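Example 3.2
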Amino acid sequence: MSRARYLTLAGESFGEVREKASRFLTYAFPIRDEEDFREKQAEIARKHHAARHICHAWVLGNAGAQYRSFDAGEPSGSAGKPILRQLQGAGLTYAAIVVVRYFGGTLLGKAGLSHAFADAAKAALANGIIVERAVLASLTVRCSYAEVETVKRDVLQQEGEVVQAEYTEHCLLRLAVPQSAVDGLMELWERRGLEVNLSDS
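Structure, written as tokens:
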């Protein structure tokens, strides 16, 4: 797969594993950024307020270079890392897994916990749909009202989207387009005399 594309989850999926009466309830879902993850994690925590351990891992960045795992009071490395390994092993980014553990009264030991958390993460991923997405770049285009529909059509043809539009004396369009299409679109619009800028975000 080229660097212009990445794998992520199409939507939320759920899995459940039982190990010696302990229940592991797993949520796997796509995320845009850390804040998006925190909101979803807080929602799960509210739903399972009686659970003692709510462990997680997430991966971000087009190449999956940002990641984090959290053991939530389980022995160090026995929960977050096994979850993270499942995400990374599937080649996913912009994705997260939260595992809620309800203790069943029998200690599993560090190795037993690691296996259980890995199995729980696998279960949710197995129920999910993995999709390939294009890495997007942000562009802004300033144009006349007469040119707006043509620019929008150009964007849609490249599987991009109009993120925001401001209509004043001129039209200012904020666009998200596949990185692979940036050079061609910029060249096309500049030939038409439009003002085009590549944004950082």
